[in-house]
Design goal:
The complex is a heterodimer of chains A (about 180) and B (about 450). Chain A is an alpha+beta fold and about 180 residues long. Chain A contains 5 helices and 4 strands; from the N terminus they run βαβαααβαβ. Chain A has helices at about 15-25, 45, 55-80, 95-125, 155-165; strands at about 5-10, 30-35, 145-150, 170-175. Chain A starts with a strand and ends with a strand. Chain B has helices at about 5-30, 35-45, 50-65, 70-115, 125-135, 135-155, 165-170, 170-175, 185-215, 220-245, 260-285, 290-325, 325-340, 340-355, 365-395, 400-425, 435-440. The radius of gyration of chain B is 24 Å and the shape is elongated. Residues about 50-65 of chain B have low confidence and may be disordered. Classes of the chains: A alpha+beta (about 180), B mainly alpha (about 450). Chains A and B meet through helix 4 of A and helix 12 of B.
């Protein structure tokens, strides 16, 4: 069960936020989420997030694209209808391969790029008409928000967060998603 | 300050001595008399060697239908041809190795100038390593030019057939190019290239060392200006150098992107050598300010320029293969028929291997991994130069044997000696360079 109450600590400086994250982590509190208006360098490391594996998926999608290109060109140009087009040797794939390389390259890039982007959208749950999950509109402009689950330790948490330089601390009921 | 360890110095001398002995042996054994070559070819024919040339020669002889005088003439011509190829081999082996090590130094010089002109923030901690490597440029380039000129004066036109007045006399195509391809003008051009490169090298080094003790940034500004000027000069002269020193071994053939192609080869080899020497010096404890982030950046360059090289190699090959115009395509036909393994093998060495090994960001930060890939890349680019020179000089009589390996050893020894001697001449970290601090704290 998710905690029904969370604390929203708001900061107005990314350096303060970074040191706050380190302090909260050191005090062994679980940070649910952090909302920032722009990428904060090193924030994922400080939060201890696992590295992304999206590059690995892109590599595999690229291999898929390469296989699609090879299979397609081999079937069309060599197996199905091996015509003599301008004297190009269509006896085997290898003999005519240089002519296929531009397509092989482009399809590799096409598959790698597009499927990786789609993977990113799926994994980060983004699509048109999606309801924005934004606890405070200021976090898209110039404020940083750290969300911490409360397990009956409100006052202790609030004191800790005040020490870290939060400009605003709110106790809110978390909406169920 | 770096001190040239005695062990490495001895090692470089051993390389040079072994190389010299082997090169000498190559020249001693390459002078075959007419009869010797005749016997050699007969022996090869009996062994069922299946020489392509022998086969065409035989069919040719049969076609003449008893015109024995003509057949005998053909026979003599063929033997002379092979005799000439055998005599060319030590020259070509020496030339390929000399050019290979020269191009490393030239590639590093271009990389160095780009780093300064682009005001890169990550590389200043590696500047002294680059300056050390470029110390080889002046001797190395002079050696290449001397071998080229010697092959046409003391040698028997062993590298460039356009140097042979008799060939030019009977060859309309070469005759038409003799306004550009003639020995005096070739020599003067070569000296202009070398002078320009060495002047930049001399002054950039001078300003770099002066900046260490300077009060202001005037030396930095000067080095920035001459770097920009040098890059303009370099891209013209590098292109012309590749026509002169490499493309003209096939004076009937031409390619427009050849200069870029040679540039890609020299650039990636140069960057690889920067990585190898930095890793070596760091392992000896001389570059404690160089960290794995710098290695990562250098390895990214190795990766990217390996792909750039492949792009140019394939563009040149595919355009010629596709249009299949006889006067252009002979270049690749001779390589495909007689050099299949080196020609296709270098694509594996220079493209497939680096792209798979250096794609992962973590692997680019592991020294032994970069060293291993770097050695493969260097070997691949040696084969690249080998494929450019050998088909025009020794044809199907190529082999990587004593003349080739000893030439590599000779110039490797010289390269190590010159480079590491230059490294002892100045502290390995630039002082007072405006981007030094940024570079020391470079983090990716």
């Amino acid at each position: 069960m998710e905690a029904s109450k969370v604390i929203h600590a708001i900061y107005n400086d990314d350096d303060v936020l970074m040191s706050a994250v380190k302090k909260v982590k050191a005090a062994k509190h679980h940070i649910e989420e952090i909302y920032t208006p722009f990428p904060v360098h090193g924030l994922d490391k400080a939060m201890g997030l696992a590295p992304t594996r999206i590059a690995i998926t892109a590599f595999m999608y690229g291999l898929v694209g390469l296989s699609v290109a090879i299979t397609m060109m081999n079937f069309i140009m060599i197996e199905d209808w091996p015509q003599n087009i301008g004297g190009k040797p269509s006896f085997s794939y290898l003999e005519n391969m240089p002519a296929f390389v531009p397509i092989m390259f482009e399809l590799t890039v096409f598959f790698a790029a597009h499927l990786m982007v789609i993977t990113f959208y799926l994994r980060s749950k983004m699509w048109p008409f999606k309801k924005a999950e934004n606890p405070d509109p200021r976090t898209t402009d110039d404020h940083f928000l750290m969300e911490i689950a409360v397990h009956g330790n409100e006052s202790e948490l609030e004191n800790l967060l005040k020490e870290t330089g939060a400009v605003e601390i709110n106790l809110v009921d978390k909406e169920a998603h | 300050m770096y001190t040239f360890s005695n062990k490495l110095k001895t090692f470089s001398f051993i390389l040079m001595i072994l190389g010299l002995l082997g090169v000498g042996y190559g020249f001693m054994t390459s002078h075959k008399s007419f009869e010797e070559v005749e016997h050699l070819l007969e022996a090869e024919a009996h062994h069922g060697g299946g020489h392509a040339e022998e086969a065409t020669h035989n069919t040719h002889a049969e076609n003449t239908h008893g015109e024995e005088a003509h057949a005998a003439d053909e026979h003599a011509k063929h033997i002379e041809h092979v005799q000439h190829q055998i005599a060319n081999r030590p020259w070509a082996a020496l030339y390929v190795a000399a050019f290979f090590f020269m191009m490393i130094a030239l590639g590093v010089l271009a990389f160095y100038a780009i780093q300064i002109a682009s005001q890169a923030g990550w590389s200043p901690v590696l500047f002294r390593v680059m300056e050390g490597i470029t110390a080889y440029l002046l001797p190395g380039a002079l050696i290449v030019l001397i071998i080229a000129v010697a092959s046409g004066t003391i040698g028997h036109y062993n590298l460039f057939i356009w140097m042979d007045p008799e060939v030019v006399e009977h060859d309309k195509l070469i005759k038409g190019k003799s306004g550009f391809l003639n020995l005096p003008w070739f020599t003067i051009r070569g000296l202009i290239f070398i002078a320009g490169w060495s002047l930049y090298r001399h002054f950039s080094r001078k300003f770099s060392i002066a900046q260490d003790t300077a009060e202001d940034n005037s030396n930095f500004k000067k080095s920035f200006r001459i770097a920009a000027g040098f890059l303009v000069f370099f891209i013209y002269t590098e292109s012309m150098m590749s026509w002169d020193w490499i493309m003209s071994v096939d004076p009937h053939w031409f390619s427009t992107l050849f200069g870029w192609y040679v540039f890609a080869s020299m650039f990636v080899s140069g960057i690889t050598v920067i990585a190898l020497i930095s890793i070596y010096l760091k392992s000896r404890g001389y570059l404690e300010f160089v960290n794995e982030n710098h290695l990562h950046d250098v390895a990214k360059y190795m990766f990217a320029f390996s792909i750039f090289w492949t792009y140019l190699w394939f563009s040149q090959f595919m355009l010629i293969w596709y249009s299949n115009i006889p006067e252009e395509v002979t270049y690749f036909i001779s390589r495909f028929n007689d050099y299949k393994l080196p020609f296709l093998g270098m694509v594996a060495l220079n493209f497939v291997f680096p792209i798979l090994m250096l794609m992962n960001a973590d692997y680019k930060r592991i020294p032994w991994f970069v060293v291993m890939t770097g050695l493969v890349i260097l070997f691949g680019h040696y084969i690249d130069i080998f494929n450019m020179i050998m088909p025009a000089t020794v044809g199907d009589r190529w082999f990587i044997g004593i003349p080739e390996i000893s030439s590599i050893l000779l110039f490797a020894g010289l390269f190590i000696f010159v480079v590491f001697t230059a490294l002892t001449k100045a502290p390995l970290l630039v002082k007072r360079y405006p981007f030094r601090k940024e570079s020391e704290e470079f983090h990716y």
